[in-house]
Write a sequence for this structure.
């Protein structure tokens, strides 16, 4: 890492370490069962992990030991939303594994940690023994998602830090990580989106490099397509396609990107903002420490280009029109993906990264958001994506609901079978001044979603953003209506979405200004 960037990050850590130790109310763990809300407990949980990371790298040993002792006293290292019917203390989830890794590596880093035997015993009892001693596979070892890489990778790094026999690690961790890799198609697309690429492939990379340091084996070899995913789906610096439970401006750790570039020679996304530790809501030790070790200033420029990731069904194209970089992103795939939304054929139009027609991305995670009522929630629902109804029907849930994307000379076609008996064809075509959309299907009612209120006049609708203006021609003035909904984004911020709806009468044209 360059001296300037490293100095800035270390200064931030010193400021955090100098603050009082965050308050922690263990009774908030029961709030989730009563209300379904996750944030009250999780906010304090991650604040404690942030303080742990800062103290471990730049803080006083006595204060660090006190925080570690408090973590060892926690009812569970797993989040309450992930507790199953067993003992919460031995629930092996993402954050239990991350905590085990952080504490194991801190023990190796800091000789002044008190009660080291107790800390190591807690790591073993809560995570490593349940994982390595279990004869039955955990669900995340068989249903592949970011969980597979994070849990196995973090537990594996904890075991390496504590000096476990590499044959033990090889027998349990490597099969899970190989299965995680096999869940990607040849195009390397991450069906869970950019945030979960950072999370899952990040922890895969961190373990792979720790494993290479220990054994000389290179697990990263051959992963170039997966490593290229962020560059393929970037709309603009600090702006990515937000399909599924994603954010439009995710934190991409400089250490991870630098390592992948150095090791694999893959193209990197253009970076205008170097993330701080505060940018990572979950305060992940692995991202922090690997950025300090590997990170550097990346930069880069965004350029016109197009990508079709046919395996996951993502299309992204950037074109320079006038003085602005306009982007079109279209979603295919199927309606039972990890972190699934009912969004087949939905699309984003962005001007210099600002989504004028948006994908809602991730909502606030609650019990209902991951329960039977998931598709009644705003963000995952078909109603709040830019997709039509077909003969009055919204999109259906299930692996059989699918959309195939096919390149054309000037855009992409989406063949969508997700409405029961009614099928839909969407044709997106770039022109010199905009994008044409033609929908073929019975009894279509169009919906176009934005965080900007549309203004209608006659057969046009206009969305005026800070970086560009989008004008839709072809609105049916007799059936047009504007709806809005107040909702909550992933980390609890209130937001409002606007929908423009009308009966489809013919081809539509988006003028890009």
């Amino acid at each position: 890492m360059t001296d300037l960037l490293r100095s800035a990050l270390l200064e931030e850590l010193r400021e955090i370490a100098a603050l009082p130790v965050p308050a922690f109310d263990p009774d908030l763990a029961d709030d989730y069962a009563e209300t379904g809300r996750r944030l009250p407990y999780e906010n304090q949980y991650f604040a404690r992990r942030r303080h742990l990371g800062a103290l471990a790298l730049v803080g006083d040993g006595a204060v660090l030991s006190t925080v570690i002792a408090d973590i060892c006293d926690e009812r569970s290292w797993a989040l309450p939303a992930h507790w199953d019917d067993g003992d919460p203390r031995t629930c092996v989830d993402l954050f239990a594994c991350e905590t085990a890794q952080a504490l194991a590596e801190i023990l190796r880093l800091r000789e002044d940690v008190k009660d080291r035997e107790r800390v190591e015993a807690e790591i073993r009892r809560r995570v490593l023994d349940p994982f390595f001693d279990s004869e039955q596979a955990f669900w995340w070892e068989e249903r592949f998602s970011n969980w597979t890489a994070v849990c196995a990778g973090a537990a594996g790094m904890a075991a390496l830090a504590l000096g476990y026999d590499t044959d033990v690690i090889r027998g349990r961790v490597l099969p899970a990580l190989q299965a995680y890799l096999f869940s990607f198609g040849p195009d390397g697309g991450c069906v869970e989106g950019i945030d979960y690429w950072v999370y899952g492939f990040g922890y895969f990379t961190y373990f792979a490099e720790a494993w290479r340091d220990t054994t000389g084996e290179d697990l990263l070899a051959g992963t170039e397509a997966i490593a290229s995913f962020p560059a393929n789906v970037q709309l603009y610096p600090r702006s990515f396609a937000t399909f599924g439970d994603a954010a439009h401006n995710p934190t991409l750790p400089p250490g991870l990107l630098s390592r992948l570039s150095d090791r694999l020679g893959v193209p990197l996304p253009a970076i205008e903002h170097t993330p701080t530790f505060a940018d990572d809501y979950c305060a992940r030790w692995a991202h922090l420490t690997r950025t300090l070790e590997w990170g550097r200033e990346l930069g880069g420029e965004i350029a016109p280009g197009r990508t079709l990731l046919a395996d996951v069904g993502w299309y992204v194209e950037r074109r320079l029109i006038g003085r602005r970089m306009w982007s079109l992103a279209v979603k295919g795939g199927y309606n039972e993906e990890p972190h699934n939304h009912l969004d087949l054929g939905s699309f984003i139009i962005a001007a210099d990264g600002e989504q004028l027609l948006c994908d809602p991305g991730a909502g606030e995670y609650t019990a209902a958001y991951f329960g039977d009522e998931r598709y009644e929630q705003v963000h995952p629902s078909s109603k709040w994506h830019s997709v039509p109804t077909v003969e009055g029907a919204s999109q259906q849930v299930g692996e059989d609901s699918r959309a195939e994307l096919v390149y054309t000379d000037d855009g992409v076609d989406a063949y969508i079978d997700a409405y029961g008996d009614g099928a839909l064809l969407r044709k997106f075509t770039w022109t010199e001044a905009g994008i044409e959309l033609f929908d073929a299907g019975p009894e279509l009612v169009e919906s176009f979603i934005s965080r900007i209120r549309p203004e209608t006049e006659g057969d046009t609708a206009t969305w005026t953003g800070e970086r560009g203006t989008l004008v839709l021609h072809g609105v049916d003035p007799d059936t047009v209506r504007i709806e809005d909904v107040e909702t909550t984004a992933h980390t609890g911020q209130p937001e409002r979405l606007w929908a423009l709806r009308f009966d489809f009468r013919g081809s539509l044209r988006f003028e890009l200004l």
